[in-house]
Amino acid sequence: MDKGAKTLKKLCELDFDAIEAYEEAIKRLDDKSIADKLSQFRGDHLSHTDALNRLLQARSEDKVDGPDAKRVLTEGKVIIADLMGDKAILKAMSANEKLTVKAYEEALEVDSLSVEEKTQVTKHYEDEKRHHNWIKSTHDKM
Ligand SMILES: [Fe+2]
To answer: Is the pLDDT of residue 5 over 90?
Structure first.
């Protein structure tokens, strides 16, 4: 597996990690409008996993079907499950999105990604920045 494939695999595992954190957060949020917004973001992460798996398969690599056992997100589902209150949940999700933005940003520096792969990764990077900005600004207003 070359660096490009490893990068796509890691991003896909990270998106699965994020999906689990989102599911926990959505269940626990009191504010329905915030939960609805997070459901949309969760949907973006799901479409990322589909797109990244298509790219992996085009390279004849195995599909990723869940997060890495080590988990990369510092505020993953286990941490979120213990939090009380919407503000604390958004703070944790904001930290997660910050890491995800960084991971996509770093992936764009990897030379062994094809033009098509970089185009896809750039789209995901834009989604991640949008998620992070929304969650952070919503948290800061609370
Ligand atoms: Fe995100």
So the answer is: yes
